[in-house]
Write a structure and sequence with these properties.
74 residues, 51% strand, 5-stranded antiparallel sheet
Length: 74
């Protein structure tokens, strides 16, 4: 197993409050945002990602790059 070479935020983003079917806006530490219906979590090669679906399709966003995940008005 390789050591993670990315620095982590002091507080890890809490994704336990996310509910399938609700709309959220996720913002990464680099400032990228994605808004969509939360579909759940996928794990690939030990990378946890949230899945948001919008009109353009589905996006998988790694949990370790999230700065915030906020509820969004539909």
């Amino acid at each position: 197993m390789q050591a993670q070479d990315e620095s982590q935020n002091a507080a890890t983003i809490d994704i336990n409050h996310l509910r399938v079917g609700a709309t959220y806006q996720a913002t990464t530490r680099s400032g990228r945002t994605a808004t969509g219906e939360y579909l759940g979590i996928e794990v690939a090669h030990d990378d946890w990602m949230i899945i948001l679906r919008n009109r353009a399709g589905a996006e998988s966003i790694p949990v370790n790059v999230l700065a915030s995940v906020l509820g969004s008005a539909a």
